[in-house]
């Protein structure tokens, strides 16, 4: 189980317009926000990523780089980038499901076409959001088994202001006996 204050798994992935993303080469002044999404077939993801695209400049102002990643191939990822009007947000594609599992993401099987008429991949990862420090330790994480009720990006930006002002530590790190 991935917990705060531990090293994040390796993550190297191609992006639509920004070359290769490699977490080991990512050095924002504060953190990297890694947002895993289900794929082009998910209308909830499209709305969520539109919000992340809109909020990416606010994250950047606070020293947080952003990327959204799915197991979709390049063509479907490009369609999602176009759908959300991605200008600021990096869109990564080709996430292997074995890497998704290392990040603690849930995996779902296809149920055919979604409500927007797009076929789900045979297997795909469910959503997750992670704030990772430049030393690659996990600061915060949220993993979901469903596409609904995801963390709010505007609230996350406000929380980052509090974190910086109060030098607030990562929480949820205890793995000993209870």
TrEMBL record:
GO terms for molecular function: antioxidant activity; oxidoreductase activity. Pfam families: AhpC-TSA (PF00578). Residues 2-165 form the Thioredoxin domain. It comes from the Bacteria. Signal peptide: none annotated. PROSITE patterns: THIOREDOXIN_2 (PS51352). InterPro entries: AhpC/TSA, Thioredoxin-like_sf, Thioredoxin_domain. This is Alkyl hydroperoxide reductase subunit AhpC (Peroxiredoxin).
């Amino acid at each position: 189980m991935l917990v705060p204050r531990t090293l994040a798994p390796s993550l190297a992935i191609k992006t639509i317009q920004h070359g290769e993303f490699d977490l080991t080469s990512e050095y924002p002044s504060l953190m990297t926000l890694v947002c895993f999404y289900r794929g082009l077939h998910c209308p909830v993801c499209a709305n969520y990523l539109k919000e992340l695209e809109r909020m990416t400049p606010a994250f950047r102002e606070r020293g947080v780089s952003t990327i959204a990643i799915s197991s979709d191939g390049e063509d479907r990822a490009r369609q999602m980038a176009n759908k959300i009007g991605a200008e600021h947000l990096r869109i990564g594609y080709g996430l292997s499901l074995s890497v998704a599992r290392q990040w603690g993401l849930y995996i779902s099987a296809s149920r055919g076409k979604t409500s927007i008429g797009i076929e789900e991949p045979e297997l795909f990862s469910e959503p997750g959001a992670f704030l990772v420090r430049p030393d690659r330790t996990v600061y915060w994480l949220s993993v979901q088994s469903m596409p609904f009720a995801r963390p709010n990006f505007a609230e996350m930006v406000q929380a980052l202001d509090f974190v910086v002002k109060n030098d607030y530590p990562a929480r949820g790190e205890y793995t000993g006996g209870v």
